[in-house]
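Could you help me review a protein record that somebody else here produced? This is what I was given.
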Amino acid sequence: MVRSFSGRRVDPDLLDAVVARSTTAPTAGNTGGWDAVVLEGPEQTAVFWQCTTTEGWRARARRWPGLSAAPAIVTFFADPEAYPRRYAEKDKTGAGPALADGAALGEGTEGWPVPYWFLDIGAAVMALLLGAVDAGLGACFLGNFRGETALCDALGVPPGRRYAGAVLIGEPGGDDPPSSSLTRSRRPRQAMVHRGRW
């Protein structure tokens, strides 16, 4: 993850190609139940920062100067209701997910044991991050911690959509303080991957 950007504009064709990578990611039932709003340039990206940060956070965040210089921000919004609609279609009836007791999922999202609308965005974000690296750009993911309603309103997002997070994209900048998370050791693969059984 790159958390400091030079501020130099990304070529629009290159940005389009990188963003297009996200649309090739796997999606449950080929639903594609997410949308992205791409913000380019200081005027558009300022809206993102106004909605998702506070003055206090900006004053104390050591990474704020580098993050705020990102010339492009791709915001991701899930459409949870798209999944029950998709799995109610004829080719999925009876073949789609069911609850543990064998009951059908029903019409809403509450019965789904896993929120595939967020899993699909995770796959799209990873494709986008890898595409940025392949293109020689820097990128990082920022989760949804504040300002979801304000951001949805500011960007004209339809009701019912959920903001999942955003990917900042641009040329890496010089001052990128290491994350405090790097002081933690990663869990060893042998502790995470189980073969045959736990």
The longest helix spans residues 116-134. The mean pLDDT is 90. The first strand starts at residue 34 and ends at 40.
